[in-house]
Write a structure and sequence with these properties.
The chain is an alpha+beta fold and 286 residues long. The chain contains 9 helices and 10 strands. The chain has helices at residues 4-17, 131-134, 147-154, 161-166, 176-186, 199-220, 228-235, 267-270, 279-285; strands spanning 23-28, 51-55, 58-63, 66-71, 76-81, 96-102, 107-112, 120-124, 254-257, 262-265. α1 runs parallel beside α6 and α5 (176-186) packs across α6 (199-220). It starts with a helix and ends with a helix.
Length: 286
Amino acid sequence: MPELPEVEALRVFLDEHLVGKEIDRVLPLTVSVLKTYDPPLTALHGSTVTGIARHGKFLDIGAGPLHLITHLARAGRLRWKDSFPTAPPRPGKGPLALRTVLTGGDGFDLTEAGTTKRLSVYLVHDAAEVPGIARLGPDPLDDSFDRDTFAALLAGERRRIKGALRDQSLIAGIGNAYSDEILHTAKMSPYLLTANLTDDEITRLHTALRATLRDAVARSSGLAAGKLKAEKKSGMRVHGRTGEACPVCGDTIREVSFSDSSLQYCPTCQTGGRPLADRRLSRLLK
């Protein structure tokens, strides 16, 4: 799933390629992709793109008084096109979900692989009209997101730190992958309870969070939209690297599986050498 660093890179890319250009047409190709119906997408036809913004994992294309907002979900991708076929695309065929064509002939496609369709598009007058944006917590790359702000957010939380980092209403933009990376950098177990964090641990976690996201944004800066997925994968130290050697200590990276996701961690760096319980795997081995 594209997370804050990749969506930020897309924001920069689209700022360079879209702002100041006129939209010729926007074509929804799947029934499920469009989450709003008033105003209609045709209201964008002939309008000029005035700005690009990011809200957590949401990408916001401003065109006059309107905002075309998308959340790429797990399998969504934005693919820039210098030109398009003359024949219109056929709705419901393949991964293509939405096409935006500029008057110059270039533009972008939104695609989504797989059978579970979660990619979403909204056309609104105010970004706060999108429910997922209205509930977002603060952006961790904002200058105001200092150590004390982070500590105040965690105060009163009583859950595993992995889940807290992924909670969009607590902190915007961090998902499964970067929460693994942040915790590895901070040398903390994903099962550590937020209520048990010491002042020093909160400081260490805040430093790791900011550094991990900033490094990822820097790696993605200047990349074309189609290269962001590969860059994200290559930059991971533990996430998605089950069975490989930890780049810090050399121990074998382990995994805990859940019904719809998994986490990766290094026992030596994060859990004092102890493997975490994986109840799903234990049931399979019985």
